[in-house]
Amino acid sequence: MTKDGGNNGKADKKAQQYGVTPQSVDFNDWYNEVVKKADLADNSPVAGAMVVRPYGAALWENVQRWLDDRFKATGHESLIFPTLIPMGFITKEADHVEGFAPELFTVSKIGTEELAEPYVMRPTSETIIGHMWSGWLNSYRDLPFLHYQWGSVFRAELRTKAFLRTSEFFWHEGHTAHADEGEARGEVRQQLDVYHEFCRDMLALPVVRGEKTASERFAGAVATYSIEGMMRDGKALQSGTSHYLGQNFSKAFDVKFQTREQKEAYAHTTSWAISSRIIGAIIMTHGDDFGLIMPPRIAPIQVVVIPVGRKDNFDAMVEEGEKLAAELRAQGIRVKVDKRDGVTNGFKYNDWELKGVPVRIELGPRDLEQGVVVVKNRNGKDKETLGRNEAVSGMTARLDAIHTWLLDRATDYMMEHTVKADSYEDLQAAIEGGNWVRAFHCGDAACEKSIKDDTKATTRNIPLDDAEFFNEREEGRCVKCDQPSPYGKRVIFGRQY
Ligand SMILES: [Zn+2]
């Protein structure tokens, strides 16, 4: 084990010692090993389901906290619905049932009694929420309904991958109902923008805001918008969605009201979600061969203090570490003091690097005498010796700088791995090379499917005019079939998680 445990170019050797396969050797193995060894999640005895361990749960709670505050600040109220939904509800909206039928878990028995009408474990809650809304809604004065709930949903998966593909996953689902289309569409965009801001400012994830093509829409939606992020293997991860559902669900569930003019009208509804997949995005956007790199603003532990002492002065160093931690906590920084005895410093350094803690402070007796500490950023190679007080007072700025570094690195990676293609051969080659491709498309579902069959790439989205990336307006003809493109934009194609 290297003495300093730093990112000193011995990635392979260290990875072998610690047992994390380098990303370049096998990205999939790297991911699975990091999830397990960083104590984020474990396999469970339930097929397709994961167990989120405390470190992973702490990360998810930080995600929840920020989003929950923002939902409330934008006027939404949370509520709580049952996990079970009557089977008959799911079949009411034709596209919806077609989309979800193959993934449904069904409860058909209570004790030994067969149920006359089975229940399904909710795959999402539009149907039961629509049913209840129809009873709550009378007049235009009742609108809008601005609701959301936190919980888990169930969609059967054969091949499990922690956080990315599990039969039970965790999320919030936002559901709103409005008197008119304009207001509902405004809500859809507002929530998409909240997700975009969250990813950029809290997770250091650059994401592309755009509209999905018709064949990639949510089952039952009129329009689906997404934010798409690029992982370090060039694949896309749909990191959040926001849907305009038109009157499809309100007609299926009789969500209607008296207008100001005493006429009867159906509500315009929306739904939106970010799920526990976002943790997969954090891991795969920022991680390196040493393990995770937690974006500082969401990290469960932002700074780890490691007392470096011998037997006779270890306790005194721990005490000094606690004092330092208390000063950092007073600034609102999340700090852990690693008090483990009988474990080498090198082991501790590697352990916290694997877990991606943004900053490490080493505190030794000789340094303490001189009033200095040793500081190392997770994303850098070098250790710095700083005055103790300077290290404390500069910590928030240091964490911000790490955030910016991560965001810039991820943005550069996305830009370097996104190419324009104007011929089908170029598209195929670029996808094969692990890139996103920007190309014109005709919008025809069969044409889209033929590209997917050839390349395993799907349309990710069509960037919005105010998207941060790839938003320029351009006219062209379909890269596959040469029909004119209806979008006035290039579409992003990519393989996806
Ligand atoms: Zn085409």
Automatic annotation (TrEMBL):
Record keyword Hydrolase present: no
Residue ranges occupied by any Aminoacyl-transfer RNA synthetases class-II family profile domain in the UniProt entry: 48-295
The reaction(s) this protein catalyses: tRNA(Pro) + L-proline + ATP = L-prolyl-tRNA(Pro) + AMP + diphosphate
Pfam families xref list: HGTP_anticodon (PF03129), ProRS-C_1 (PF09180), tRNA-synt_2b (PF00587)
Entry EC no(s): 6.1.1.15
Main EC class the enzyme belongs to: ligase
Domain of life: Bacteria
Subcellular location: Cytoplasm
Keywords tagged on the record: Aminoacyl-tRNA synthetase, ATP-binding, Cytoplasm, Ligase, Nucleotide-binding, Protein biosynthesis
GO molecular function: ATP binding; proline-tRNA ligase activity
GO cellular component terms listed in the entry, alphabetical order: aminoacyl-tRNA synthetase multienzyme complex; cytoplasm
GO biological process: prolyl-tRNA aminoacylation
Primary role: Catalyzes the attachment of proline to tRNA(Pro) in a two-step reaction: proline is first activated by ATP to form Pro-AMP and then transferred to the acceptor end of tRNA(Pro). Can inadvertently accommodate and process cysteine.
Assembly information from the UniProt record: Homodimer.
Entry domain remark: Consists of three domains: the N-terminal catalytic domain, the anticodon-binding domain and the C-terminal extension.
Family: Belongs to the class-II aminoacyl-tRNA synthetase family. ProS type 3 subfamily.
Protein name: Proline--tRNA ligase
Species of provenance: Deinococcus hopiensis KR-140
Gene this chain is encoded by: proS
